[in-house]
Each structure stands twice: as structure tokens, then as C-alpha cells.
Amino acid sequence: MRRWVMWTAVLVVAAVAVGGGYLWLRGGNRATNDARAATPPSLPDEQTGPSITTSRAQQIEQHLVSSQSNEVADVLASTVKAAYLKEPGALLPGGASVHLDVARAQQAGQDMLRVPATVTGPNRGAWIVLVIRENGEWFVLGTDQP
After folding, report:
1. Quick check: is 44 in a domain?
2. CA 24, CA 103: separation in Å to the nearest integer?
3. 0.90 exceeded by pTM
4. Phi, psi of 103 (to 5 degrees)
5. In which domain, by residue range, is 63 found?
6. Does residue 13 lie within any of the structural domains?
7. 56 in a domain, yes or no?
8. CATH number assigned to the domain comprising residue 18
9. What one-character DSSP code corresponds to residue 46?
């Protein structure tokens, strides 16, 4: 549990630093959180922003649950990879799996997407994975529970 808390803090700090004001702080700015909850973002009928491919999403899913730190690091954004490599380890407990719902991804900024995810097994539940495009490829920047 301690590792989870540490990684959540690292990923939130990275999201704030890179996201240009995109905050994921639970209980942070109450007015912002309440407004976001009251008016959920919606996608236009035809998405014109960036999109993540199903094959890249599947690669991210597989690497996020890996017990091999080099595989996990392969899908992390450069801004969080260095911190992860200082204290590598599994991000999710053994037996967990994750599914990214790319059809419901929402643009969160220039070259960033909020991708709904479902985790099964330990720590199961609904999650949001923030991915960022670096050099034409998508990498995980942070996570949060909606």
C-alpha cells in the first residue's frame, strides 16, 4: 500500500507539472472538483483530437501489470520514468489486470488523453489513465480513480 501511495503522489505531481493546470488532486480545489463532477466532459460525435490505437493500449495494459521493471518503464512518460527507475517495482499487485477503454478516451490537453480503465483482481475498480504523446507514441503519465 505504501508503494501505491508513493506512486500516486509521483504521478499526480507529474500530471500537474506537465498538464498545464490539469489537476488530479482529490479534494484539492473543491470548486474545480465540484464543477468537473457536475459537468462531465463529453466528446464530439467525431473526435478530432489525438487518439490512441488499440494495439498501443494493449501494450500499455500488459506492461502496467508486469512484475518486470524494464517493461513497466517502457510505457511510462519520460517525466515519471526517472522517478520510477529510482525505486522500480510492480505498479499493481500480482493477479491484477487492466483494460483501457480507448473508445471512451477524452482529450485532456495538447497530446494528452484521459482513458477510462478497469482494473480487475486486487485494487479492482474504475480508473482514469492519463497518457501523453511523446515522439509520436503514447506513454502513461498518471492515474486516478474517478
Report:
1. no
2. 22
3. no
4. -65, -25
5. 2-38+51-144
6. yes
7. yes
8. 3.10.450
9. S
Question: What total number of domains does the chain contain?
Answer: 1
Q: Rounded CA gap, 48 and 17, in Å? A: 25
Which three three-digit cell numbers place residue 138?
503514447
15: left (phi over 0), alpha (psi -120 to 50) or beta: alpha
Residue 128 CA to residue 142 CA, distance in Å, equals 8
- How far, in Å, are 2, 107, 122, 137, 146 from residue 125 at the CA level? 19, 22, 9, 27, 10
pLDDT band at 133 (very low <50, low <70, confident <90, very high): very high
Per-residue pLDDT tens digits for 103-115: 999 999 889 999 9
Q: Is residue 46 part of a domain?
A: no
Q: Is residue 73's pLDDT more than 50?
A: yes
For the chain, what percent of residues have pLDDT higher than 90? 54
